[in-house]
Amino acid sequence: xxxxxxxxxxxxxxxxxxxxxxxxxxxxxxxxxxxxxxxxxxxxxxxxxxxxxxxxxxxxxxxxxxxxxxxxxxxxxxxxxxxxxxxxxxxxxxxxxxxxxxxxxxxxxxxxxxxxxxxxxxxxxxxxxxxxxxxxxxxxxxxxxxxxxxxxxxxxxxxxxxxxxxxxxxxxxxxxxxxxxxxxxxxxxxxxxxxxxxxxxxxxxxxxxxxxxxxxxxxxxxxxxxxxxxxxxxxxxxxxxxxxxxxxxxxxxxxxxxxxxxxxxxxxxxxxxxxxxxxxxxxxxxxxxxxxxxxxxxxxxxxxxxxxxxxxxxxxx
Length: 317
Fold this sequence. Notes:
Layout: H1 3-11, E1 22-26, H2 52-63, E2 69-73, H3 83-91, E3 98-103, H4 116-122, E4 126-130, H5 136-143, H6 147-160, E5 169-173, H7 184-199, E6 205-208, H8 215-223, H9 227-236, H10 247-250, E7 251-254, E8 260-261, H11 264-268
Parallel strand pairs: 1-2, 1-7, 2-3, 3-4, 4-5, 5-6
Antiparallel strand pairs: 7-8
């Protein structure tokens, strides 16, 4: 049974892949933080990281396509040994490709990573940074004590290098509990006002992303006896207008082992494109066959279609 698929059918809505615009690569589960909302179950003790051999195979496939953007995520993607190598290889491709780094900010202050902000600026890498709130209590509750102060320091460093002005810097808001994000435009105005007023920080856009009830966030909800209530909240707020903009339509998700998925959430649920018929790797797929491919769905998909919708680029409607 797939209630989400049934709901799409009832609405007369189809969900198939459009032309791919982003290759999102989850380079591993290693992270310097252990956040409550993390759908990857990432943390400092995780060993899963992408090898150089896999990086080379991913880049070789990417180079055969016209996909303009590669989006590096994790964990903390910066912690894999070949993070800089990955970016240098991608930026050397012809035609030029755009690189996104999904950064938790605090990694930029860790020992051994101090030169990373300058490296990212030199290679014109877009930064999408997690910042659950503009107040310390909410951030520290979700991400750990002291994370707010570290995030502020990191943002100030990025601003000093031109991020937020001539280099793109976007922040991500995740709710700190079992509720949907508020209106994105209003939250962005609040963030910009408060961060500028108190810390002199500027950034480009705020992206609101709904927490999906999987992995560590599902455990958090279950512990607080809110899992079923939250799942029902997502179902009750299904919005068919969000479907055309879902990230699974234009983004290909790749795991640290090179397996291919429709999105990072499907990846964590092991919903590989092989769909039960074995593992399918990116380099086993002909780029021309991606468009119009059927998208694998499940109940978790109600999270991306609830309210104003949710994607790696924020609200959808």
